């Protein structure tokens, strides 16, 4: 197993796990998906359950992860149920209890916070249910595997992306700000570690000055509010913003539009959401970190099936991440993120991650045509 050296420096690790849910699990039609491939896991009960965290902090959970996971499980021929906790710790706990009680074989979760995630994984361990942390590691949770992207690398792409955008604008000296993710999400600290490392030389040399550093809590309105305050505090003299995902970038861009500065201040993002891609095409956003959820879902499905069948999993993990609470290495399957700008935005469409009909609407259509985006 190859140890990912960058990840070994983690001081905090965020948690996401996919949890096995039965076909009878509670949830509305728009927050759950059940499927049965017919040949996975033997008799009775759902093979794999998934608990996604919410539908608001990022559109990726419902728009990308859910269909990617469904396809991976369908292709593998295993039964599954995907539920969404809709941002509620209580709902998360109820789904966890129900899935374990109904005998899921593998529990995969994306936690809302460390405490509730760990409580769920502890129950799974006590019941003899194997578990996978999906996208976010749960510190102290003891999941069998962790499936994600290299989250420090994700942050690094935002940092180098901002440098490239400022260089392209001819700005060798710049005031920059950070709009970070939520403190309750340990991934946010890993992203920040990545962009701090990428920007360290520029800041240490005095080329860049960090004039603001606030959390937007993964919320567009809150991100807009904290950015507006930093913008006001600095008399409008902000040259670039590292914003940790597309949802928050949208809130920042709205404030820049109100100030008449949209397109003049490079803004980063993450998730290659419809809004993020539209903002790139319109010239409001410098780029976004594209994380192809098909890669994550495929890795998670292969690991889950191997766990169900009792197969060797050593070839399925390409690295390890240290749990900061236990100091133990968690076998990990880590996918590679990609920085997407106007120059390579077609890739997201070619992969089927984004649809022309969703992105190239109304006034964005002309920008799509100019960029050569094809259906």
UniProtKB/TrEMBL annotation:
Domain Periplasmic binding protein: 49-311
One Pfam family cited in the UniProt record for this chain: Peripla_BP_4
Gene3D superfamilies per record: 3.40.50.2300
Residue stretches of biased makeup (Gly residues): 35-47
Alphabetized GO MF terms: carbohydrate binding
A GO CC annotation given for this chain: outer membrane-bounded periplasmic space
Endpoints of the signal sequence: 1-25
InterPro entries: Bact_Solute-Bind_Prot2, Peripla_BP_I, SBP_2_dom
Cellular compartment(s): Cell envelope
Region (Disordered): 27-51
UniProt keyword terms in alphabetical order: Signal
Name of the protein this chain belongs to: Substrate-binding domain-containing protein
Organism per entry: Nocardioides agariphilus
């Amino acid at each position: 197993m190859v140890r990912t050296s960058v990840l070994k420096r983690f001081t905090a690790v965020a948690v996401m796990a996919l949890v096995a849910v039965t076909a009878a699990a509670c949830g509305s039609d728009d927050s759950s998906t059940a499927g049965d491939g017919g040949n996975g896991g033997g008799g009775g009960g759902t093979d794999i359950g998934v608990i996604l965290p919410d539908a608001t902090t990022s559109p990726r959970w419902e728009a990308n992860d859910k269909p990617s996971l469904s396809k991976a499980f369908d292709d593998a021929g295993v039964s599954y149920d995907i539920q969404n906790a809709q941002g509620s710790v209580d709902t998360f706990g109820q789904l966890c209890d129900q899935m374990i009680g109904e005998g899921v074989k593998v529990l995969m979760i994306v936690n809302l916070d460390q405490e509730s995630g760990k409580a769920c994984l502890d129950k799974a361990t006590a019941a003899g249910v194997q578990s996978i942390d999906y996208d976010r590691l749960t510190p102290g949770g003891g999941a069998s595997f962790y499936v994600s992207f290299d989250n420090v690398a994700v942050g690094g792409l935002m940092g180098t992306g901002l440098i490239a955008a400022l260089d392209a604008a001819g700005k060798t000296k710049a005031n920059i700000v950070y709009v970070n993710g939520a403190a309750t999400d340990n991934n946010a600290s890993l992203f920040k570690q990545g962009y701090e490392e990428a920007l360290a030389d520029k800041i240490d040399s005095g080329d860049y000055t960090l004039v603001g550093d606030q959390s937007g809590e993964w919320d567009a309105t809150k991100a807009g509010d904290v950015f507006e305050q930093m913008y006001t505090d600095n008399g409008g003299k902000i040259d670039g913003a590292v914003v940790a995902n597309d949802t928050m970038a949208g809130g920042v861009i709205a404030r820049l539009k109100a100030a008449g500065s949209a397109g003049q201040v490079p803004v980063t993002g993450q998730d290659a959401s419809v809004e993020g891609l539209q903002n790139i095409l319109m010239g409001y956003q410098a780029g976004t970190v594209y994380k192809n959820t098909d890669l994550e879902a495929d890795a998670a499905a292969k690991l889950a099936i191997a766990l169900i069948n009792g197969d060797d999993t050593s070839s399925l993990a390409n690295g390890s991440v240290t749990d900061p609470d236990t100091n133990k290495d968690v076998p990990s399957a880590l996918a590679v993120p990609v920085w997407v700008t106007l120059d390579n935005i077609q890739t997201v469409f070619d992969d089927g991650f984004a649809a022309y009909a969703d992105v190239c609407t109304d006034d964005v259509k002309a920008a799509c045509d100019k960029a050569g985006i094809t259906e």
